[in-house]
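Training component of the fellowship. As part of building independent skills, the fellow (R.M.) carried out the full modelling exercise for a liganded target. The chosen ligand was magnesium ion. The inputs are recorded below so that the supervisory panel can assess the work.
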Amino acid sequence: MEILKGIPVSPGVYIGEAFLLEGEEVRIPKRMVPPDRAEAEAARFEAAAGQVLAELDSLRGVTESQLGPNLAAILSVQTQLLRDPSLRERITNRVIKQHHSAEYAVARTLREVAKVMSASQSQLIKERSSDIIDLEKRLLKELLGEEGEDLEHLQRPVALVVHDLGPSQTAALDRNKIKAFATDAGGRTSHTSILARALQIPAVVGLETISTDITGGETIIIDGNRGIVILRPDDRTLARYKKLQVEFQEFEKSLIKDKDLPAVTQDGREVRVMANVEFPEEVLDAITNYGAAGVGLFRTEFLYLKSGVMPTEQDHFEAYKQSLLHLGGRPLVIRTFDLGADKIDPAYSVSEHNPFLGLRSIRVSMKRPENFRLQVRAILRASAQGKIRLLLPMISCIEELRWGRSTIEEIKGELRVRNERFDDEIEIGIMVEVPSAALQIRALARECDFLSIGTNDLIQYTLAVDRGNEHVAHLFTPAHPAILTLVKMIVDAGREFEVPVAMCGEMAGDPIYVPLLVGLGLTEVSVTPKLIPEVKTIVRSGTYERFKEIAGKVMGMDEVAEIADFLRDELDAVLPPGSKFGAGRS
Ligand code: PEP
Ligand code: MG
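Fellow's submitted model of the complex:
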């Protein structure tokens, strides 16, 4: 049994099979054989080893004639390793005594050796570990033949283990097969993590080494509440987690029971708790299963990232129409494409040293306005059918807002000529997620109809901490006084200019911050659908007066740990016993 600690990014507990997705997508389909087949299985390994040795010999001959003896000698390292009787014995022992499949025995043994070698002080030995991995791949290919499985052909539910996943890969995951995931890389607000929450599968990221710690096929526990991953759990641990899994399901059910009660503090202040969605299919679920008051953020770029095909105007229109239908009169905030950085636009990708500081979001729209114009046309047309607000992402200066507004006006003009109906009063808002926008918020607020605080980017840009980098994930926190000061500035500016302010960054769905945000004056938050019932419960559990006091105290604090501890204690005090579990919590 091995226990790994990472960053919990999507709540829930998964217990089942691990599926390792590697670069070359070689995997181990079966790991145990019946005892009476163990001898035959060992012979299968010996035969595969013989094949690989022959292959290596012939490769060595070709390499020697084409590239000379020195380079050919590199391949002899693998030959020597595979001829080593002690290594072969370790593998066959696993098959004969532990009844492991040949593939599993090869993978486990060679991974263990590679791990020891890569930890060596000697550079020479360290470098040899890649020969071991290479040898493992050759043997597995030989053993697996055509049986190797890839993601597309998976037939059963598994947890995906992979070094890193991109947002578009995550968006394309088949929810019926992939029930959880664990990655080496990533942070709590990376888009991959946000998608895991949208897909409602337990996920832990930032585990650093998990993709090399497993071979695939073993039993894995992924505890998305605590950020713990357990490989090859023993029976006691398995039993404990099965119990926890049931308790968590009960906890979720208990929250959902009150999902339709309004989020009103005990002294009567109402907070609108909306849903963040990436796909139109999520809207109905958010309303009926989680009690959303509307959609506060539709990350429309996923219409493209999921399929890899740029949506037409009609595709956009249909997606918005479908969403409005499900919303039944509730508001729909549509954000225009926020491509770039980690949400790579393969059609136009440019090579950048700092993609998060590069051609991203509204900057892409301004550089290549065709897609922006097409999308705005669709949004305006859909606005004739329901309550839509249009949100511009990543505004960093007033010129970008003015460009957005004037382009929207131009498109309205075109639609008038075409006699198309649209909401002429459509509200236009901006994401406040770049420090320059927060610092210039009073000027921006004067020219906006609403503001939406995007803390995921606001934190990364203010604190200089990459939101998806596991090595600095401990520094990524909404509890930094600089972030709280900016949030307060934005909320205060909204109040001054009577412009509604919402928050759609992940901070809004993190339970410990809910009392503070309400206390600072926020009346609208937009969170992952699954978190809505818990956020509403927290709002209902205290008074606005109490929340204001909490905010007042926090704004006088200077240290992250002091703030986070205080907020955690306050949450414990306001929530009734038994109504919290720690899911997705800071
Ligand atoms: C944010 O930055 O907080 C936000 C909501 O936008 P995204 O996570 O899509 O970048
Ligand atoms: Mg953002």
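The panel noted the following from the submitted structure. Residues 265 and 540 are 5 Å apart (CA to CA). The longest helix spans residues 38-67.
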